[in-house]
Amino acid sequence: MNFRSFLAELKRRRVYSVAVAYVVVAWLLIQVATQVFPFFSIPNWVVRLIVLLTIIGFPIAVVCAWAFEVTSEGIKLEGDVDRTITRKTGRKLTALIVIVAAVAAGVTVFRFLHSQQGIEAAKQPPLAVAIESKSIAVLPFENLSDEKANAYFADGMQDEILINLARIADLKVISRTSVMQYKTDAQRDLREIGQQLGVAFLLEGRVQRAANRVRVNAQLIDSRNEANVWAQTYDRDLADVFAIQSEIAKAIAEQLQAKLSPNEKKAIEQPPTTDLAAFDLYSRAKSILLTASFSVTADPDLRKAIELLDEAVKRDPSFFDAYCQLAWAHETLYAVKGSDHTPARLALAEAALQAATRLRPDAAETHLARSQYLYYGLRDYAGALAQLEIARRGLPNDPRLFEVTGYILRRRGQHEEGLQNLQRAVELDPRNFFTLQQIALSYQFLGRYVDSITALDRALAIMPDNLTRAFRGLFYFCWKADTRSPLRTIDSILAQEPSAIAGSADIWFLCALAERDPAAAERALVALGDNPCWGEGTILLSRSFGEGLLARMNKNEARARTAFEAARAQQEKIVQAEPDYGPALCVLGLIDAALGRKDLALDEGRRAIALTPVEKDVNNGSRVLQYFAITAAWAGEKELALQQLQAGLRAPDASQMLSYGALKLLPFWDPLRGDPRFEQIVESLAPKGNAASSKK
User: How confident is the model at residue 615 (pLDDT cuts 50, 70, 90)?
Assistant: First the structure.
């Protein structure tokens, strides 16, 4: 048979028609699979399998078309076919091919048009945000002094001018946390900065300090067209530096035609201190405190800031602002980080607050400082909210008012209202990395993981921080039991900057536990250093605790017991220093359960719950309740563990340890595996389509 005869035979046996029909139907099937299957949460591997099967099926279909014919009497071998019948069947087959091809073409055109719309939409510039005409950001001032140590002096100048402007209710002023990222040593695109911060005007400055003289150049820029609106040079004695700050603030207010009340004018003209050395110490401490909240070295940073502030108030006992910052630094160690939750630390915060109150009892800053002490120190929510309301009158542009309000409402279980206040804080502080992280946590508490990840992406666009990248991956782990996303981030950090892994090593350790990978878990523990192996809020599990978990994974019971004994010795000291602190007692109970001290562990867990009622403290109360379920499981009390697990899932805050990923993969829950009730709970938490993004 020559080639031409072979082609004619292919046509006679309708192999061409079958091949075309197969390709058209396969294409239509793939389109349906890729478009419809994700809607029903059908895994991607099913789509890939369909594509693979259609490819494998093509040669089979062609061979069958050569060997067989489809007739009205059924499928017959090609040699047994009556050709008068096949002509009719062939015409029907051709009509069917045309119809299916038309449908496939329609789907293809729809997808093309839809994708083009998406591309065009992506090309469109973002909708213009309405920018208030009386809005301003004070960018970091450039230090022109020969001594680089004077950079803190330049920072202090910028900060005081910003604070003075923020006191004016007729202005919208962006917080320092958002503007500090626009360093003076980089080429600044003022138009873009104005858009990112949502302000009409930008204030730039340069500071040169030499001996007893100071020169300050300041210029006001319209960010919408980069026009220079106002500029002034001040060349004065160093002792006049605070007068310069006041003059610049009043000049800016005049340029923006902002109304200035007598009280606002008085506050602007009041110098923070008369001691320049104390001001330098204060400026250095404040710069540290601005970044300590999201720093891997938070504890030593906070202690350094406290040391500087103590020295500042020692030089100038009337330094009001330094006392306010000092109270906040102590409260952060006491409650925010929880690393020194002792009566002695709280007493230091109270002493700093009392000193500030004696100096300016009616100042708005005093009421703000008192609200923070009542909230962080005493958990007096009603009292803190009342103080915030008073402070609001004198601090119209301070995002901390909305931030603390958001935290209080969140801790009371009012998550939606708390989230709204945090979002309002971001309006005044749009590039505050820490607040965006807290917004992501608020979404997580609501079970809205898609929104959590979006908030973290916004934070990462501001500061590509390794810890936040790993934290983003952790959300995927909790949401979908997916260890791939966090481990990809860990691998990336190890490849690019191995020394930076310490801050993310706890997430690495958690994923290693989930994958039952002892080698990776050991590497993660080495990377941790002295940091906790896991922390969720104030529930902190020490590195020794992690060593116990690793040893138990390796079936080395003797080594596990030694590690848990070491962890208990560390935790017992913490409990002795703060015997009525529920989270610390909760961790002690968990360790005793690991050591087989059943009755003691259960007593400690129950007492921790009694000390931390959910009604008073939603965050810590939920955690203590939830981690007690693990204690009960480890103590062999399966019924109690399941009851506590159900109670923990009903608690107002969603714990990462009670997420779908943790329950499905982590060895913490191994004592309950195989129980149908536990497996049903796990299955009920599995992600279903887009439900996670809309859960309220």
Answer: confident
Q: In terms of DSSP bridges, do strands 213-222 and 227-237 run parallel, antiparallel, or are they unpaired?
A: antiparallel
With contact defined as beta carbons under 8 Å apart, do 507 and 467 qualify?
Answer: no
**Angstrom distance (rounded) from CA 181 to CA 176:** 9
pTM to 2 decimal places? 0.71
In this structure, are residues 200 and 171 in contact, taking their beta carbons and an 8 Å threshold? no
In 348-438 the beta strands, taken as DSSP E runs, fall at none
Amino acid in the structure at residue 373: Y
Q: For position 90, what pLDDT does the model report?
A: 53
The mean pLDDT of 143-157, rounded to a whole number, is 81
Q: What is residue 135's three-state secondary structure?
A: strand
Unique residue bearing structure tokens 């958001």: 406
| Tokens (6 digits) for 52 | 């693979």
**C-alpha angle 361/367/373, rounded to 5°?**
110
109 three-class SS = helix
- One-letter amino acid at 125 equals P
What is the distance between the alpha carbons of residues 210 and 203, in angstroms, rounded to a whole number?
23
Cβ neighbours of residue 120 closer than 8 Å, sequence gap 6 or more? none
Residue 206 CA, chain-centre distance (Å), reads 35
DSSP alpha helices (H): ranges in 68-207?
Answer: 83-123, 151-166, 176-179, 190-197
The DSSP 8-state label assigned to residue 297 in this structure reads T
299 neighbors 344 (Cβ within 8 angstroms): no
Residue type, 662: A
Nearest 5°: the CA angle 250, 256, 259 is 65
Residue 627: the pLDDT is 97
